[in-house]
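Problem 12. The chain below contains 445 residues. Write out its predicted structure in token notation.
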Amino acid sequence: MVILPADVQDEPMEEPADAHFVSRTGIGRPSTRLLPPVDELHRAAGVLGAGSKVAMLVGAGAAGATDEVLAVADRLGAGIVTSLLGKDVVPGDVPHHTQQAGLLGSRPSYDMLKNCDTLLMVGCSFPYTEFLPATGQARGVQIDLKAKNLSLRYPMEVNLLGDARSSLGALLELLERQSDRSWQGGIVDGMREWDQVTARLAATKADPINPRLVFQELNERLPRDVIVTADAGSTADWYGQHIRLGRDMQGSLSGSLASMIAAMPYALAAKFAHPDRPVVCTIGDGAFQMLGMNELLTVKRHWQEWEDPRFIVMVLHNDDLTQVSWEMREAGDPRYDTSQLVEDMDYAAYARLLGLTGIRIEDPADVGSAWNRALAADGPVVLDVLTDPDVPPLPPHVTLEQARSMAQSLLKGDPAERRVIVESARSVAAELFAKAKHVVSREGR
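Solution.
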């Protein structure tokens, strides 16, 4: 945004003079097609070709290089992990795409990064290094258009300064196809098991609605060209673990900024940029009160200008700043109600007050039909979903220290102690049941 004083706006425009200290700028922008030196590409191909357990970690910097990412993964027999910001770079139906890593990632992503012998990072600056291979475990190659990102998160053997599409395309010509597909096959099996885990986690009973179920039901109904946004709160957990974006879909959240109020302005920006595409904003009630309610006025003003009027705001209504509550427990502290509880209100009624469609969901049996109604609407919709704040965002690998901190927080008098124990037990049981079922099915083949 450029703000000019009123008197400056009334001044006549003058052509810049050919004088000292006068700069005459243009509107051109540089090409981002940057190819690393040939000898460095050969070095990288040698490292990658020598690996038998290759993991690719792909970020938003690989946008536009989907075909090249998939081709390199196929050539190397590699598995693919995407960052949250790079989630839409690789289609969700690719069987060796294990989605995200980290506290809100998948167990196959964790296992892949902890067991690989070669790591190829593409357009990614994943900051949570405890989830990356141990130092010295894996040989590393990194491709990035920003030199400052190279070897920033992991000590790489070869650093390629270049854009993802051009660099991967050049590498592809130097790589031989890996004949042994056992590594990639194991990743596919692990992801199939994980999908069973997340489905069972979504189906576990909650009071009144399991937030995982809300995202699971959305995932089964995503329009072909949808754009999905999420908070950096608990919606990011469920977005990461349950949403699978197709090739023509997009998704985003605030990434390393980790701003809980980004979901709504991101959704509006997406809608103004692509008025012909449906947009789904997934937002917590805390963030909706901070900014989402205000931006709904913007929606009211402009929605009839949009070619596709579908703009769905799904509010996880649990009267709790849930992500921080769980972070407090993980740190060994009980939830502090004074800072964590959110004032209760009827968000569906607020939408109707603005002349929009508001749907309140209090029964898990109504979640699927509510999504159907919202996605078929001819105008903006607010889904006010009453969800359980005590459903745990379990990490893919629970450490002893995390478990100990959680126990300490409950012993200190967490207000939701009983509910936390019950919901955590249900979630763990669902994960173990799915894992056992998968093992039995494999043994029976």
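Discussion. The radius of gyration is 24 Å. Students who got a different answer should revisit the alignment rule from Section 12.3.
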